[in-house]
Amino acid sequence: MSPGWTLGWTWAKKEIIWAMMGAQATEQGDCAKFKLKIPHSCKRSPQVVDLLPGASFNMQYTNCCKGGVLTSWGQDPSGAIAAFQMGVGLSGRTNKTVKLPQDFKLLGPGAGYSCGPAKRVPSTVILTDDRRRKAQALMSWNVTCTYSQFLASKNPSCCVSLSTFYNDQVTACPTCACGCQNNATCVTKESKILKEAENNKTMKSDIIMTPKPLLQCTRHLCPVRVHWHIKDNYKDYWRVKIAIINFNYRMNYTQWGLVVQHPNLNNVTQVYSFEYMALLPYQAINDTGMFYGLKYYNDLLMEAGAKGNVQSEVLMKKDKNTFTLKQGWAFPRRVYFNGDECMLPPPDSYPFLPNSADRAGS
Question: What residue stretches are annotated with the COBRA C-terminal domain (predicted)?
Fold first, then answer.
């Protein structure tokens, strides 16, 4: 999400970037020895960022210019790819053997990525513009970067609250679910700091880092809360309302994604206001699904405030062999927001089913 990805590496020798299309290096570096033609970047360890939408046509490249924002493959395959092109040469002679760059780094909001070494793969075959001739790349390689929630933060970044139609009790997020250290920097709705932030939306921030969080003071101190409400229980179906609330006054979540694990998701009948895609980590089990916003409607979760929430309802057909409202069965097993696992309340705090409830209906 915004401000987007940053890709960095260290050149094996004294390579320089002469020109770029579809992206740009964040620093030019020391190019003083070049008098006539000035390179794009002379940094030994360059960092590259995506161009913003609307970049001039002569700077664009296929799948570029999204401002560094990438969707998940399931949401939008075309938006899940970023590409750019560089013209690279040595600062001295250019007829030396090309060597693999080292120390790749993929940076983004929250960081948390670790990259392995570059590995050579069969050289890419490139078609000419008229598609009548094939040219082969001098060398091709792959680098795999893996995301870890624990590297990104010591604490969770979201939590889950629960409620039902059959019990007035609301199970709130656990206290300090996302760490109590945020307590010193949280603000109330009447805070002068909040009013200043609202009057100055164009806050200065580093090109790589996200703005420092400005959280609304809550018991859980989480930037995001997911609320799961069991709304209705019909004869053959049951209905759940899902709401996602943003408590960060300085962060919009672009093209957010919510992944839920629940055994009855294999019987999803209809989803209102959200898109839904079933995930199949195991072919025999279909208990995990991804919810995400409708494009240009609610795929942007706004910063904290009156518009800082999105919500939908899910209608599921009952599995007669397993469905029950008892013992918390109807609540999710795991919830992930933008890839990070959210903290669930302890099971003994779930809203309980009254003893007088109709057993046949459950």
Answer: 157-351
